[in-house]
Amino acid sequence: MSPLDPTTTDFGQFGEPVETFCLITGEDGGEPVSVLPGDGYARVDRLTLPRGTRLGALIADKVPSDAHVLAVCPGRFLDSPTPEELGARKLAVLPAGSTPLTDEHIRTFLRSAASTDIARQAAVAEEFFDLVGDSDRLTIVDDASGTEAEFDHTVGDCVWNQQAGVLEPGDQQIFPSGKLSVTAAEITTFRPDARLLGLHGDLTLRGLPIVHRHADPADGPEQQRLFEALAPLVSHPVTLHVTAGSIEGVTPQTPGAAPAAAELDRLLTDDPRYRVIWELGFGINTTTEVIPANCGPNEVYGATAGVVNLGLGITPATRFALAFLCPRSSLLTSDGTAVLGARKAARRGRMRRVSSASCGCH
Fold first, then answer.
1. Which of 16, 146, 158, 227 has its CA 20 to 30 A from that of 169?
2. Measuring CA to CA, which residue among 238, 212, 233, 181 is closest to residue 77?
3. Phi and psi angles of residue 133, each rounded to the nearest 5 degrees, phi first
4. What is the spatial distance between Cα 360 and Cα 323, in angstroms, rounded to a whole number?
5. How far apart are CA 62 and CA 60, in angstroms?
6. How many whole angstroms from its chain centre is CA 41?
7. What is the pTM of this model?
8. Parallel/antiparallel/unpaired status of strands 307-312 and 320-326
């Protein structure tokens, strides 16, 4: 398989093949993306999304009613089709417009999607929701810094979301797949008064930031400046002090974290809507590697046992939407069971070592 020539059946999130697989690309430059027919699909249709045309309108007008659709449009911000526009089609969208993606980034995410074990991902999602559903109180801990935040998801309203596993007819999903989350309201809306009211305590930001913009290219320079200002969080963590889902303060954990903490403080002061922790996200794609750049699809990154991430703001209500990967944090149930994250990875590591020692005795 060429890096830019995967087959339709490489993408397990679509499930069983149908007659038509449709690849939608944009009009802008870059290396052409192609997908070869795989077993079960009769043909691959390729469409170009014209400037000024909504993705949903093109799908409703040009795509067969039961097709599987993959949209890869670098530099183009895509609004979600309405349920009426999508119908029974299945849609996967590479988020390629809200952050700058290079041709190599796109190749990387295509390879990642083609390598993702969708059946295992679906099982991980099912286990996650089973554990979360049986525990009213969840805790996010960072063992290195000692911070803890408690989330009682029975307090107030919240919406759980799944962007993982196999699509059903009429579903749309990010590509590559592999993110679960809880938001203060429906994921595609923004209400400044909405809060994850049950979230209290201290959260450590220690990982790569992601800065999304909306459709205005003029926001690109400020987007890049903000990403660079927050990038030191990879090695210089800060603590967010949270009450009822709202950030009350920011404290650098090291001297090197002071500039990023100051940038966050300015952001929260200039637009208090960023104080709302809009989303608690959980990346579970253990195939994809995090790209050390401002890449939206990094949000599905799951390391070896899942990664906590936090979301502030949502475009276009706020100028930017920020996400922070926290690969050293863990999500625990009320009895201390590791749902995902660093503690679960460490437990798996101990189990592997024990298994290896046992095998060596034969």
1. 158
2. 212
3. -65, -25
4. 44
5. 6
6. 29
7. 0.92
8. antiparallel
